[in-house]
C-alpha cells in the first residue's frame, strides 16, 4: 500500500511540473541584408519571445574594422514576468539595459 501511495505522489509531482513550450513556432520573421555593410532582422514566436537587431560595419576597409549592433529582446520568465533588454554591441563590448538588470555604480 505504501508503495502505491509513494508511486501516486511521484506521478502527481511529475505531472504538476511546469511544461516546456517545445511546440513554439516563429510567427513573424523579417530579415533585410542591406548589403555588405549592414543587416537587420526581427522575429516573434508563439510563446512570446521577440527580438530585433540591426548592425553595420564600422571603419570599413581599415585594420580596426568591426561591426556595431543594436537591438532588443523580450521574453516571459518562469515567474510570469515579462523581461525586456535593449543593447548595444560595439568596440566597447556588449552593453545591455533592462529594468531587471543591475546598474554599475
Describe this structure in words.
- The chain is mainly beta and 105 residues long.
- Helix content is 14%, strand content 47%.
- It is built from 1 helix and 6 strands, in the order H-E-E-E-E-E-E.
- A 6-stranded antiparallel β-sheet has the order 1-2-3-4-5-6, with no helix packed on it.
- Strand 4 (66-76) and strand 5 (82-90) form a beta hairpin.
- Residues 1-10 have low confidence and may be disordered.
Distance between the termini: 60 Å
Q: What are the segments in which pLDDT stays under 50 over at least 5 consecutive residues?
A: 1-10
Oligomer state equals single chain
What percent strand?
over 45%
State the helicity in percent bands. 10-25%
- The spatial strand order of the largest sheet comes to 1-2-3-4-5-6
Overall, the morphology is flat
DSSP summary, beta strand count? 6
H/E element sequence: HEEEEEE
Class derived from helix and strand content = mainly beta
Counted by DSSP, the helix tally is 1
Amino acid at each position: 500500500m505504501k508503495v502505491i501511495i509513494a508511486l501516486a505522489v511521484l506521478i502527481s509531482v511529475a505531472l504538476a511540473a511546469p511544461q516546456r513550450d517545445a511546440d513554439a513556432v516563429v510567427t513573424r520573421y523579417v530579415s533585410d541584408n542591406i548589403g555588405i555593410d549592414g543587416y537587420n532582422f526581427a522575429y516573434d514566436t508563439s510563446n512570446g519571445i521577440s527580438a530585433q537587431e540591426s548592425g553595420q560595419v564600422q571603419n570599413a576597409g581599415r585594420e580596426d574594422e568591426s561591426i556595431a549592433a543594436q537591438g532588443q529582446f523580450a521574453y516571459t520568465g518562469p515567474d510570469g514576468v515579462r523581461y525586456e533588454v535593449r543593447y548595444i554591441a560595439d568596440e566597447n563590448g556588449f552593453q545591455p539595459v533592462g529594468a531587471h538588470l543591475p546598474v554599475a555604480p
